[in-house]
Amino acid sequence: MAARFELFIKGVELANGYHELTDWQEQERRLLADQQQRQALGLPRRPLEMRLVEALKKGCRIVPAWHWVLTVC
Asked: What are all long-range contacts of 62-70, with beta carbons under 8 Å and residues at least 24 apart?
């Protein structure tokens, strides 16, 4: 899950940024809740991608970032 923003001026993306969820227990809870919701709605279950959770458990951290996009025409 990410809090994210994008900056557009006249239809041109100039910047975007994000902050990622780094709490492994909350990330795991959300992944499992998503699976339960899909099952309740009769949607196909997806294989759970737990590599992110495992990396967060080991202490890996995702650093918030800015990304600037410049377009020259």
From this structure: 62/20, 62/22, 64/17, 64/18, 64/19, 64/20, 65/17, 65/18, 66/15, 66/16, 66/17, 67/15, 67/16, 67/17, 68/14, 68/15, 69/13, 69/14, 69/15, 69/16, 70/14
pTM over 0.85: no
pLDDT at 13: 81
9 token code pair: 């001026």
Q: Could you give the dihedral angle defined by the CA atoms of residues 33, 35, 41 and 45, in that order, rounded to the nearest 10 degrees?
A: 180
How do residues 38-61 score in pLDDT, each as one tens digit?
A: 999 999 988 888 888 888 888 876
Residue 43: CA count within 13 A, CB half-sphere: 10
